[in-house]
Amino acid sequence: MQPTDIRNPDYFHRVVDCQWGCPAHTDVPEYIRLIAQGRYADAYMLNRQSNVFPAILGRVCDRPCEPACRRGRVEDKPVAICRLKRVAADLRGDIDHRLPQAPDEKNGKRVALIGAGCASLTVANDLAPLGYELVMYELLDKPGGLMRSNIPAFRLPVEVLDEEMDQILRMGIDLRLGQGVASMKDLLDNGGYDAVFVGTGAPKGKELNLPGRHDTQSVHIGIEWLESVAFGHLDSIGERVLIIGVGNTAMDCCRTSLRLGAKDVKVMARKPRGFFKASDWELEDAEEERVEIVVNHSPKEFVVEGGKLKGMVFELMEYDIDEAGKIAASRVAGEQFIPCDEVILAIGQDTAFPWVERDIGIEFDQWEVPVVDRVTYQSTRAGVFFGGDAAFGPENIIWAVEHGHQAAISIHKHCQGEPIAERMPAGMNLLAAKMGIHEWSYSNDYDAASRRAMQHMSLEKRFRKLDIEVELGFTPEQAAREAERCLNCDIQTVFEAPLCIECDACVDICPVHCLTIAPNGEEEELRERLTAPARNLDQPLYVSAELPQTGRVMVKDEDLCVHCGLCAERCPTAAWDMQKSELLVPYARHEATARPPMGSARRKEPQFDEGAGQVRSAA
Amino acid sequence: MSYIARPKVSHPALARNDLGLTMRDYEGGMSTLCAGCGHDSITGSLIQAVFELSIPPHRMAKLSGIGCSSKTPAYFASSSHGFNSVHGRMPSVATGAAAVNGDLQYIGVSGDGDSLSIGIGQFVHAMRRNLNMLYLIEDNGVYGLTKGQFSASADAGSTAKRGEVNEQPAIDPCLLAIAAGCGFVARGFSGDRAQLVPLLKAGLSHRGFAMIDVISPCVTFNDHEGSTKSYRFTRENAFPIDHTDFIPPEAEIKADIGRGESQRVELHGGGSILLRKLAREYDIGDRGEAYRYLDARQGKGEVVTGLLFLQEGGADMHELSRLGETPLADLPYGRLCPGPDALAELQNRLR
């Protein structure tokens, strides 16, 4: 194998599994260390840089970081990254003076943001401080998009949502509530905007056209039903409710039903467990509330008598699962009638653009999804950008935030007449972590503690009102304990081949057998020759240059490294060293000043989020 | 040395031996030797060897004298028996232990000071007695604990870290062992684990005294330009004369057998070894030739490594002294302590 090029920022970024897994590349290990030090406000601000909504995401993020977490491979449970984020938000204190502010003097460019959801808000967050005049159109009476209409208040309290949206909206965003855009053509022709961003989400719930569907008023589309509840238009439901579908929306529907008075709620799944779309933790939370999840039931028809829903007929499914765990064959083994009073359909959602004319240069593909560039988020019409669920179909909040950041860069470049595809590359800092002979700038000992359980509001109390938050958050003590579980994957093992005397000290001391000194070879074969075979092909091998004395190479399997630093402590020549990697992600403000991000060496960087607000250079 | 202990977390796919143990089950305490010490690498090889041989930890006894090397038993197999004895007196303690319990696997770890200076008499007599044990000399050519003076194995002409030249000739433990009648004589290098681990396994399976001199660079005092026991010098001048593979008793033999240069030797302690000649020009069982060959090669500054001399079937201490096979610990109390009448009878016989 060729020696690993650690100068490529992607190499060490990939070792930080959580950050690599996060669409917005949140610097997870660093904010966890800040939490461990009790620096909650700093942890909040660091989060805010990349994910903009730490308090919201600390409750409802889809957390792609957690399945990626190395701790989950070393033992079974990942670090509770998401809930630690919430701790930073809960305990941050007053940070208003550190938030970005819009300059009094505008730059003369006007941008329309359609939809007041997470994607548009992120664009606003990035562009308002640069002097853009931003007009945000929202069809509903309140901003927030799906965060308000689809996520129930018992998971995301309205105050939390309002507070973080207000951090952005107060920068002089011209928010036009109750004003959807009826015609894109009209907006483009007569709006006087230099750029338009579409962040209208995926607002159309999928239909289930089975016999009887439209013979009753008791069948609802999940996201529309949730919206009616969120806006107070609906406050009751029948006693027996069936939820069709087993995604995260289904989980919100079943739990909301319980709070509106349903006594018997069943979630009907077509497939067996393991094939559900809902996140494991959302399933757990629903089952804790005694929702019954019924598997292998495929809807066949609605049974309606005299306009009144009596129940549904389901086909009982049987599946053959192959060795790879996939469904190889399915068949119908019978039918079953299940009585109910109401049915909620939660089987997916789509984008909808009836208001975008098809002859104005904005192309759509065969599924009526706009053609959008994956890097610039520009549509086929220059100056029109899409982000969030509107761009590529339903994803989640954290993806929408990342789309927003990238679209903001494009919008800025478009407005300034710069080529939007020429973007500042990400950078990487490596900083010494050594503080003394056996001292490192992080807590390097492995803490065997198991994952802290989140405490929940008691079952007796939580159903009394619709907006009683179920999760109580971690206490500072629980957070400190959980923070110690983080393996500090950003404190990288960095190897200097010319210094190595091949004494094997590092190989022997490594608790997880990830180091080997061996003759070089092809990757496939080398992976089998290591101290412990490296069979997780998703994780790279770090291969050194030839070692001076024997010409062999040092190979590190990154898979299970617990970043304890013992290789570096044991190395007599400091060939191994622990260095903190810091990913430098450019945002619109960096493009605006043409100064790349500098991270911890940020003394000369214009600061929005570290100091007193306005663009300024620290002295 | 390190301040934090080696974390208890381990690789989930770690291999298990016949006893269901992993390598980590054969670990000991954290080493307090200098970072990069050859001794730690030998510890690593020992752990690998006893793990691969599936030796139950409670059937091993680790013994040592005094010195950096003699700290080794603390760093592996913490659930085994251990005895850290007086300087140079480990062979006596090992003799006593082996006499009363011949069933344990004895591993003595000594150094060039402990075995070739203060303890040379004990070392030679242990070989003469043919004590059934593996005896390692972690050989770095200096007294590390007292800040790097020349030891008895330092080569004439080599220099100390500060520049003084050693003018006295070295005692070569391998030549000494061959001369003293030892039946298993080998030399390894801490930095060549592929060679050392099979030698350790063969030595553990040899019945009688197995002496392995392991060149083990002192990273603090003797890893410099003028040293002949540094990592670099040893790598450049090592002269492996054969390759040893240890073959467990039941294993099928596939490697190299039948080729002219290979030789299979049954070990009386179980299993066999397969010797592949690399450069050896003499019969491994010929004491005189082995001595002459080694002496000549080493005169040219080469560090001859590998299994140097092997003589199976010699009577060990138990046979020579006609000791009982049953360990004293396993004797019923009545036989171990026959009572006042038996004592009186014995005394009467001596009157």
Task: Record keyword descriptors for this entry.
heterodimer, A: 619 residues, alpha/beta, FAD/NAD(P)-binding domain, Alpha-Beta Plaits, 5-stranded parallel sheet, 23 helices, 29% helix, disordered C terminus, B: 351 residues, 8-stranded mixed sheet, 3-stranded antiparallel sheet
Structure description:
The complex is a heterodimer of chains A (619) and B (351). By secondary structure, chain A is an alpha/beta fold. Among the domains of chain A are: 101-203 and 351-415, FAD/NAD(P)-binding domain (3-Layer(bba) Sandwich), CATH 3.50.50.60; 205-348, FAD/NAD(P)-binding domain (3-Layer(bba) Sandwich); 491-583, 2-Layer Sandwich (Alpha-Beta Plaits), CATH 3.30.70. In chain A, 29% of the residues lie in helices and 19% in strands. Chain A has 23 helices and 23 strands. In chain A, the strands form 7 sheets. A 5-stranded parallel sheet of chain A has the order 3-2-1-4-15, with helices on one face. A 5-stranded parallel sheet of chain A has the order 6-13-7-8-9. In chain A, helix 9 packs across helix 17. In chain A, 48% of the residues are buried. Mean pLDDT of chain A is 93; it is low at 603-619. Chain B is of the alpha/beta class. Chain B has a single domain, classed as Thiamin diphosphate (ThDP)-binding fold, Pyr/PP domains (Rossmann fold, 3-Layer(aba) Sandwich), CATH 3.40.50. Chain B contains 11 helices and 13 strands. Chain B has helices at residues 38-52, 90-100, 112-116, 120-129, 173-180, 193-205, 231-237, 287-299, 317-320, 333-336, 340-350; strands at residues 60-64, 81-84, 105-111, 133-139, 142-143, 149-150, 184-189, 209-215, 238-240, 242-247, 262-266, 272-277, 303-310. In chain B, the strands form 3 sheets. An 8-stranded mixed sheet of chain B has the order 2-1-3-4-8-7-13-9, sandwiched between helices. In chain B, strands 10-12-11 form a 3-stranded antiparallel sheet. In chain B, helix 1 (38-52) crosses helix 6 (193-205) and helix 2 (90-100) packs parallel to helix 4 (120-129). The longest helix of chain B has 15 residues, at 38-52. The model of chain B has no long low-confidence stretch (mean pLDDT 93). Chain A binds chain B through residues 73-75, 438, 444-446, 448, 501-505, 507-509, 511-514, 532-533, 535, 549-550, 560, 562, 564, 566, 569-573, and chain B through 2-15, 23-24, 34-38, 40-41, 43-44, 190-191, 193, 217, 219, 223, 231-232, 235.
